Amino acid sequence: MSPPSEDQYDVYPVHLGDAASMNEKFVSWLFTFNDVLDVDKLHVALAQLLERGDWRKLGGRLHRTPDGTLKLRVPQRFTDDQPAVAFTKQDFSTMSISEHDLAKHLPKPRDLAYSQSIAGNMDFRSFAVPHGFPSTMKQFVAMQAPQIALLTTSFKDATLVSVVWPHTLFDGVGLTHLLHGWSLKLAGRDEEIPAVLGAKKDVLDALDTDTQPAAVAFAGPKLVRGLDLFLFIVLFLWHRIFYTPRDTRTIFLPRAAVDQISLEAKKHSGDAFISEGDAISAWVVKSITSAEPKPHPVTVMHLVNGRGRLKCLASSGGVYLQNIVSTAFCHLSSKVSGASVGEIAVESRRQITEQSSEEQMTLLLRRVRESLRNKKRAKLEFLGTPHSRVIFTNNLTKASYVQTADFSPAVIRRGQDDESRRNPKGTMVNYLHLVVNGHITATDNFYVIGKDHGDNYWLMATVSDKAWVEVDESLARLRTDE
């Protein structure tokens, strides 16, 4: 059968920030459910969601025009040949998840804190990424595949659900909105499904106008440029030789360990407020910096969600499915980076708060958007000094994936049904976040995955072997204190 002609598509733009080259990567989110789910019912509900209004944009095919611009072509009618979602299922329903050679090693809640490798032999990509999935944007565009791939793996007592998409589609909070709409559709609560806003006109265009207030100067560390930038690159490459991020692990912090980290941090925070997330992030940063023989200045790059901070996004009654993210550059001097977890947490929160105002975010996003419009690389080396080490982090706790996804209408039978179960029927135990082409190893990085239904925290990190020694020693102390 020949593909539909051009007039059989609805065309949507790929917004300026979405089309940034750094978003031309594929991400996978592997959700673990301790129930047996009707995966066909899950697929149908997701596909039907993508038939509603501008939710249809998510079912489009990426197309690159001769001048390099990306756009989305959405079939006016989804069919078996042109589906809204690329659905693949794997069936191991004759065995328990604990009997599968690889799946039995998926991270699980325990009584004590621990870390576990999810790289090498423990790489769970066979559950997270469909076989034959493209590795480059060029391949993906050539395939004319749906943007969202759904891969399910069924066991006798559990179900793994993976959602894969190009980051040009939306950011992490966009996934929250997708899980919410999917859950509502599954429950037949169509009238509660929010509308998609800004699908055809980029709401962030408002940032480019003079009516949008912007700060005069950036509140973060100074921009490193010229010879200082060259020196930073040399030092960065030298540092990677001895402190290359190698192993990617998940970290489990039970509630008692989180309380211990928070209590220890607050002993050195004075009267300043710090959240659990501040304390946990500072604990990881401290473990990374402690791996070096002497303290160095460190710049920690925190992703910041623009929703709720920018007035141009204040429209009610709908959701924005696009990348609406800025960065806060938290510069820690040698003195602070070598100080206590509490002191790191206080200084980090102060700088993040200062850089997350509407005026500051507008200034930075306007700078990025101008560079994208001119097809240039945005100069964002806000490092303070060329001697800075760089750590990347993203706290996804407020995205609340674990709490948002309610697939209870698709439950065939309960899987885990003992007193150790903490999550309601049809909700996930935890999840893994994977980049399809491999874990990020350019610099130390960690994600605060968030809380599960037992009020425990999950993290993922890729750091050097020396930093992992520090993390494991800290975890051992937490186990002793618990």
UniProtKB/TrEMBL annotation:
<dbReference type="InterPro" id="IPR050317">
    <property type="entry name" value="Plant_Fungal_Acyltransferase"/>
</dbReference>
<keyword id="KW-0808">Transferase</keyword>
<dbReference type="GO" id="GO:0016747">
    <property type="term" value="F:acyltransferase activity, transferring groups other than amino-acyl groups"/>
</dbReference>
<dbReference type="InterPro" id="IPR023213">
    <property type="entry name" value="CAT-like_dom_sf"/>
</dbReference>
<protein>
    <recommendedName>
        <fullName>Alpha-1,2-mannosidase family protein</fullName>
    </recommendedName>
</protein>
